[in-house]
Amino acid sequence: MALNRRQFLTLMGGSAGAAVFFQACGIPEKELLIDSPIEMPEDLVTGIDNWYATSCRQCDTAEGIVVRVMEGRAKKIEGNVDYPINVGKHSPRCEAGVQGLYHPDRISSPLVRTGPRGSGEYREISWEDAIGRLTNELQNLEASGDQSQAVLVTNPIGGHLGLVADKFADVFGARRFTYEPLETSVVRKALSDVFGQNAMPDFDIDNSDYLLSFGADFLSTWASPTRYSRGYGEFRQGHDHRGKLVHIDSRFSATAANADEWIRVNPGTEGLFALAVIQSIVSKGHISDSVVNALTGGDSGWLSTYSPENVSEEIGVTPETILHVGEDFSHSNHALAIGGGSAAAHSNGYASVKAIFSLNHVADNVGKKGGVILNPDSPIGGLEAAPSGNSFAEFQRLTEDMQSGTVKVLMVRGADLFYGLPDTSGFKGRSANVPMIVSFGGMMDDTTSMADLILPEHHYLEDWGTDIPLAGVGYELVGFQQPVVRPFFEDRGDNLGTKGFGDVLLAIAQVMQMDLGLNADTFKEVIRESARELYALRRGSINAPTFEAFWNGVLQRGGWWDVNAKGPSSAEPDRLDGISSPVITGSGEFNLMPFASASLLDGRNASLPWMQAMPDPISTATWQTWVEMNHKVAEERGIKEGDVVTVSASGRSITALAMPNPATPPDAVSIPFGQGHRDGGRYSAGRGGNLMAILDAVHDETTGALAWAANRVSVTPTGEWVRVPKFENTVPDFPRDEHNHVIELTSEDAH
Amino acid sequence: MADSQDRKWGMVVDIDRCTGCNGCVVACQSENNIPNNLEEHFNQRRAIQWIRIERYWEGEYPNVKARFIPVMCQQCGNAPCEPVCPVYATYHNEEGLNVQVYNRCIGTRFCANGCPYHVRFFNFWEPEWPESLKNQLNPDVTVRSRGIMEKCSFCVQRIRRSTREGERDEVQVEDGDRAISPACVNACPTTALTFGDFNNESSQVSMMKEEAMANRGKKEGRGYRLLDNLGTEANVIYLKKVDNSAGAVHGH
C-alpha cells in the first residue's frame, strides 16, 4: 500500500521521526514528493501556463520575448527562441518588463493638473474629457494657423508606432522631435557614410577571430548587447580557435573586463588610435590600392600625420602598442572593428567613429563571414527602423523657441526631457513659457510630473506594435508586439484606465477630422493592414494559406523574417578626414568618464526594483550613484569607499559615493548615468545624483550631438560617509593563491 | 530519457564565456519569487541572490583584470549542509538535488554555517511586495516566510512540471529542453551555463564534464569544482577562464 504524505505523517505522529523513518527504510521518494512546494498537498491543482510571443521595449533593441501568462497575469519573460535577433537569449533588462506592468505607481486614468506645476496635484478625468482638452488646444492653434507651435517629442520609435506619430505630426503640421539622452546620431551618421546605409549593420562577432572595439560597451549596454553577447560566447568557445578581443577605451567597462587586452587611451583619442592603425597598415602595404585611394581621396600623404609615432603621445600609449594592434588586425583572417559609446561622445566623435568603422574596409570584411553584414531595406514600404534622436544642438534651439513663446503645446511620449537635458540647455526654466505640456507617460517621471495633462499609455505588454530592428540581422525582419495580458486597469472602465499611444493619436485625429491616410480606426487595424502587405509577398518564415492563418503565425512566432532577403554584400569606402583633438571642458583634475548603467541605462529603468538591485558588473554597487576612482589616488586623498563626495563640472555638481577600485585610471573618475530622478515612483524618486544635469554643452562638430564624455571634474569629500549598497563582500571571497588569483580560475591555454 | 529516479542533475559553467552581465541573477529573481532586494538589505549584507556573480580583481592599473564567477548552490553530492539539519529540512533527493523543504525548516541556520559556498540565504524578514507586484509571483514557487532558509533549487518546479507534463503526454523530456532548464540557463546571453542530466551519457553536460575533467592538470583540461578539496562532490563543474594576454600571470 502506498501512503501519501499526509496519511503517513498522521501515522507517525511527528515529522522528525517520520523523516528518520523515511531515510532508514528508503520509501520511494516518488511516493512522498516532499521536496517540491508545488506538489505537496494532494488538493493543490497546478495551473496551466501559456507563453505568448511579443517584443521587449526595455531598451532600444526590441528583442523577441515570450511571456509566461497564468490566469491572465504575466509571470515571467524569456527570450523567444525563434526570434533572429536574440535567439532565445535576453538581457537582464528584459526580465523587468513584468515589474513595469505591475508597478505600484502606474497611473490608472487620465489626469489634469490642479496645483502648481511639479506639485504632484492632479485630478482624475475621463478619456473623453482628456482628449477633448488636448484637441481643443490643437484646434486653437489650427484656427490661428500656428500648427508649428505644437511640438511632439518621443523616444526613438520605429515600426508602426513611429509611422502613426510621424503622420500625426505631419498632417497636423506639428514639429516632430525624437529624443534620446545618449545620442546614437553620431554612430548612425558615421555608419551610413562608411557603409552607405541608414540602418545599422550586423556584426558577425560569432565568426570573427580578432575583434577590435573602441569605447562601445557592446557586451553590456551598446546597441544590441544580447545579440553581441551571444556572438561573443561563440567567439570565445564555439570554435576551434578562440577569438581575441582587444578593447580600446578610456574607461574600464564590462567589455574591457572581458577583453584579452584593454588598452587605455586618453578620452577622445579612440578615433586617433584607429586612424593610426590604418596608417600603419597602409604604410606596410597590407591593403589594396583601391581601398587606400577611396579612404584617403587618392593622396595618402596626409595620413602620415597620423602615424603611430606622431599621435601616440596624444593618445597616451606607445607607438609599439599601435603597431602591434595593426599587425594583429591585418594578419587575422576575420578581423572586425566596432566602436561607439564614449568614443562617439566627443567633439571629434563623428570623425573618430568613421575612422573606427573604416577599419572594416581595411580588413575587407564587409558582407563576409566574421565581418560587417549589411541589412536590407524594410519589407514594408514606409515602415522604418527607429530614427536616431535629434541632436542636442537642435534641442537647444527648441528651448530658445520655448523662451520666445513659439511653443504652445508640448506633447511628450517616452522622452524624459526634464531629466535628461543638461541644465545648460535651460530647458527647465524655459518650460514655464510653454502654456500646455502633455505627457503620455504611464508612470510619473520628471517630465510627466510637470505636465498639465496626462494621457497614460498602456504598458508595452498590453499593447500592439511592430519593430523594424535598429540593428538588424542581415536579412528582412519585422518584429510583432501583441498584448499578452488584458490591460491592468481594465476594471476602471473604458473612460478611465490606460490606452495605447497609437490609439490615442488615432482618436485625436478622428476628433479633429485629420486624415492620416492609414485606412484604419485602431492601431491594431493599422498593423493588420500592413501585415496584409507582408502576406502578399508570399515568402518568408510564415507559410499560410489564408491571411488569418498568416496573422496567427506572425503573432505566435513573434515576427516575420525572410532569411533569403539579404542586404547588399559590399559597400564603397568613404573618404576619411583628419581627426581634430577633442575639446575637453572644465578645470577639474579628473577626466569624467560617464557610462550607461548596465541596468538603468540612461535612467529609463530606474523605477524598477530588480534593475535598481542588479549589481553593476564592475563595482557590484546597487541603488545609488557612485563614483569609481583609482584606489591609490583615493588613498592619497584620504578618500575611502562610501565617502560622500561632491563631483563638480563647470560650476554644477552632484554628490556620489566614492568607490575606489584598482582599474580606474589615476587621472579619471567614472560615474553611471541613470539615477537622480526627481520623480518616477517609489523606487527611484530622490535617489542618487543625475549626472546628465551637470554636463557642459560640448557638441560633436559634425552632428551637434551632446559630447557627454568631454568634461573635467573635481572631486571633494563632504566629510559624510554612508555604506555603499553593493553585493561585493556580502559573502567571503574564495581563497586566493600567491598571485592574488582566485584558485583555479584562469588557464593559460589558448583554446 | 531514463526514469526520473535515475537522473542526476548538474550544471557546467564556462567562465570563459561569462561576461558578468547579471542576466542570470535577474532571471532567478523573477522565476523564484525572491523578495525585492532593497537598499537596506544590501547594507545589512542580507540581500538574497540564489545565483550571484562574484567579481574578482587581479593586478593593478593598467595591467588589471576583472574576473567573474557565477555561483549558485553546487548541489553537492556530499553536502555539508545536509547532516547538520536537525529537522531534515535539507536533504538529498533521488535526482541528485540538494533540496530544501520550506515547511520543515525551523531556522537554525546550521546549514548556512555548514555551506562553504555561501549560497544559502536566511529570511530575516517576512517578504513584502506592494499589492500590484504580487501579480507577477510565480504560482509554482512557494513564497518563503520569515525565519526559514532558502537557496537555489535548480528550478525544481520546472523539473517537476516538465516531468509531469512529459508523463501525461507520454513524451520524453529532451536534453537541453528549455522547459526543464533553470531560468538562469535560459537567460544567459553567452551560453555560459549548461544544465542537464549527468547520468545520461549523451547529454551535453555529461560530454562537457567528461572532456573538461579527463584532462585535468593538463593545459587543455579546463574543468574544476569550486573548493574541490573539501570533498563536497559538487554537481556544478566550472571551466576556467582562458587568459592568453601578454604578461598574464597564472594561478598555477
What does this structure look like?
The complex is a heterodimer of chains A (751) and B (252). With 751 residues, chain A is of the alpha/beta class. Among the domains of chain A are: 111-180 and 389-457 and 499-515, Rossmann fold, CATH 3.40.50.740; 185-373, Dimethylsulfoxide Reductase, domain 2 (3-Layer(aba) Sandwich), CATH 3.40.228.10; 590-721, Barwin-like endoglucanases (Beta Barrel). Mean pLDDT of chain A is 90; it is low at 8-25. With 252 residues, chain B is α+β, with helices and mostly antiparallel strands. Chain B has a single domain, classed as Alpha-Beta Plaits (2-Layer Sandwich). Chain B has helices at 23-31, 39-43, 110-114, 156-169, 183-187, 204-214, and strands at residues 9-14, 52-60, 63-71, 90-92, 98-100, 120-122, 149-151, 193-197, 223-224, 236-239, 241-242. The N and C termini of chain B lie far apart (40 Å). At the A-B interface, helix 2, strand 3, helix 4, helix 8 and helix 9 of A face helix 1, helix 2, strand 2, strand 3 and helix 4 of B.
Question: What's the arrangement of secondary structure elements?
Answer:
The complex is a heterodimer of chains A (751) and B (252).
Chain A: H1 5-12, H2 15-25, E1 50-55, E2 64-70, E3 73-79, H3 92-95, H4 97-101, E4 111-113, E5 122-124, H5 127-143, E6 150-154, H6 159-172, E7 175-178, H7 185-195, E8 202-203, E9 210-214, H8 225-237, E10 244-249, H9 254-258, E11 261-264, H10 270-283, H11 289-296, H12 308-315, H13 319-331, E12 335-339, H14 349-362, E13 372-373, H15 392-403, E14 409-413, H16 417-420, H17 427-430, E15 436-439, E16 453-454, E17 465-467, E18 475-481, H18 501-511, H19 523-537, H20 547-557, E19 559-566, E20 590-595, H21 609-612, E21 626-630, H22 631-636, E22 643-649, E23 652-661, E24 668-672, H23 691-694, E25 711-721, E26 746-747
Parallel strand pairs in A: 6-7, 6-14, 9-10, 9-12, 10-11, 14-15, 15-16, 20-24, 21-23
Antiparallel strand pairs in A: 1-2, 2-3, 4-5, 4-16, 8-13, 17-18, 18-19, 20-25, 21-24, 22-23, 22-25
Helix pairs in contact in A: 5-18, 6-18, 7-14, 10-12, 10-13, 10-14, 12-13
Chain B: E1 9-14, H1 23-31, H2 39-43, E2 52-60, E3 63-71, E4 90-92, E5 98-100, H3 110-114, E6 120-122, E7 149-151, H4 156-169, H5 183-187, E8 193-197, H6 204-214, E9 223-224, E10 236-239, E11 241-242
Parallel strand pairs in B: 1-10
Antiparallel strand pairs in B: 1-8, 2-3, 4-5, 6-7, 9-10
